[in-house]
Amino acid sequence: MFEELVKRDFKQKYKRSALGMVWSILSPLLMMCVMATIFGHFFGRSIEHYIIYLFSGQVVFNYYTESTNGGMHALMSNARIFTKINVPKYLFLFSKNVSALINFGIILVVYLGFVWFEGITFTWKFLALVYPIVCLIFINLGIGLILSALYIFFRDVEYLYRLFTQIVMYGSAIFYDINRLPQDLQNVFYLNPIFVCITYFRNVVLNNTVPDFWLHALLAGYAVVLFGLGYYVYKKYNYKFLYYV
Amino acid sequence: MPILKVKNVSIKYVTGDFKSIGLKEYVVRKLKNNYKVNEFWANKNITFELERGDMLGIIGTNGAGKSTLLKAISGIMVPSDGSVQREGKIAALLELASGFDGDLTVKENAYLRGALLGYTRKFMDDTYDQIIEFAELKEFEDRPFKHLSSGMKSRLAFSIASLVNPDILILDEVLSVGDGSFRKKSEAKMKEIINSGATTILVSHSLNQVRSMCNKILWLHRGEQITFGSDVQKICDDYQDFLDGKLKI
After folding, report:
1. ipTM field
2. What does the buried/exposed string (b/e) look like for A147-161 if buried means 16 or more CB atoms within 10 Å of the residue's CB?
3. pTM for the full model?
4. Is residue B165 scored above 80 in pLDDT?
5. Which domain holds residue B137?
6. How far apart are CA A183 and CA A172, in angstroms?
7. How far apart are CA A223 and CA A183, in angstroms?
8. Does A26 touch chain B if contact means CB atoms closer than 8 Å?
9. CATH number at residue B6
């Protein structure tokens, strides 16, 4: 059943646009080109391999937004199904997440292509990237679970979350370097799981170092807390959804 | 050993401010202590039991809480109070045509619906031809679902949902699916399931249908249980009197 749902989500996504899957790669790439051209002039001189620096941020942030936004709408858009058939509702959310993950995988391949093109050598340390990705999956699932429940009760969550995503975007240091900021302000960035994830990526790919234990613990902490919270919210409220859709 | 046990089931809907206002408005109103919700009981203290092979008819005017009760019985809804115990497989045919995806083809939708109803892939592979044949949609199978007429949609939905051999079958006014010839076929199919010993729950506005098919009857009015019993003719007569305005409750 899960398989059929994933298939449907995937088809829904790609049947509607002419370029299909190519578009899902093209759109972040285009965005990145623009950013690289403009911000490259401001920050490119002081950051080595600026395009990779930028891309690392983009690839993680894109996955985060796609997955959580998809998650937010997952229950609402399938309401007509679960009000008629007795199915576990979280499956709709998980299936949306799987399609976002597949998309992320495709862009990740393009990303690694860029890394290779920039002349960065691949080492066994790249395998460590699996760690932040797994954490990110759980973070996204957790946020998705919370949002999908909130969205059923409050329709304006969509707009509020868009604003929130903007803040996360600027707070993730996607195109700039936080080392120019005062130390106190730098610490604030670590409250943002997406930033931590991006930092992990940059450490591995650009500096060829696996981050210290502290960063691992922080990421795992975010994953556990957010997923736990999402699970709790879902468990507590999932039988109430029906009354509101 | 009852196959379905419904005990003191009550279902509460919350209406009023909640649904339409957003999060911002909610917070503001909470702070101002200006937040109001109304409770609305769609079902109040419904209690009955069914044995294997029983055929229950649920009657009542519009808004009596029939559909809500069916949702609680099929497990889609968790009752606010009370409990529902059921044995065996349950198949609910409720407002069939909704919940399909307009952009997928008929075939893809059939598989998706099958999966949602808990059929395995292999089972669908084996029975797909049978489904499409029964629904008379062979020449449409690769067309997008939105191109179908609403009658065709219901036909497909019915064909998929009626495939199982359930222990409990729930019918919400579905005996009137499709055009004349299909209706005959679907009624025959329904009788076949019923005769195989399934416990059936039927919601119908046709008293004649209820009189001729059911051996137990539940009368709901505005969420309350007026009667439950096996004296079908008597209760139907009372209900008819009530509809004619001769009986007050």
Report:
1. 0.77
2. bbbbbbbbbebbeeb
3. 0.84
4. no
5. 98-164
6. 16
7. 25
8. no
9. 3.40.50.300
